[in-house]
User: What shape does this take?
Amino acid sequence: MNASISPAQRWQQIVASIQQELCCVPEDELQWIKQNLVNIHALQSELHQLFIAGDGLNQCQECQGDCCDLGNNHMTLVNVLSGLLFNNLPAANFAQSCPFMGAHGCTLAVQTRPFNCVTFICERIEARLSAEQCQEFYALEKQLRAQYQAFDQRYIGSSLRGLLIRSQSMPGSKFLAGCD
Ligand code: SF4
Ligand code: SF4
Assistant: This one.
């Protein structure tokens, strides 16, 4: 993939390529993807419930998404597959600090948000969780990481470093090509 084009153009190319590749995925492979995405969605929803329990919605609104300024490269193959197969994939706006930051916060469904986003809580949110809730949060993070790693081990385009970075080190390869 041409590294000299803008991130917005590269992003469009990446999404279009993955969409095209999905059309040729054998049925049993598609079922593997969908089942594992369902597992990821469930874990991300549970993490989000704990984020809410820590007053995350109010805290993040007050802080106006400070940590989202670092979100440029977070979207992974898993998240694009989730958007394409289950939830919508909103348009990316690379004029924003994170291309998925909207006027009212993140435009991605909770289940489709990047690993780095759903597993990060800052001190002000963590301080509002009980010790048990914190323990549960980090246990869920561990399970979720293992689910993302299952995709990393299966597909060349999958990496927690994010698609914009990953796509630069896999010239000529398909995102859903096997890792064998
Ligand atoms: S997690 Fe913390 S730093 Fe990030 S937006 Fe919310 S309150 Fe701000
Ligand atoms: S994807 Fe959403 S939660 Fe993650 S950095 Fe961007 S706006 Fe924030």
About this structure: The pocket of iron/sulfur cluster (ligand 1) is lined by residues 59-60, 63, 65-67, 121-122, 124-125 (CB under 6 Å). Helices lie at 7-23, 27-53, 56-63, 77-85, 115-118, 123-126, 131-154, 163-166. Strands lie at 101-102, 105-106. The chain has a mean pLDDT of 94.
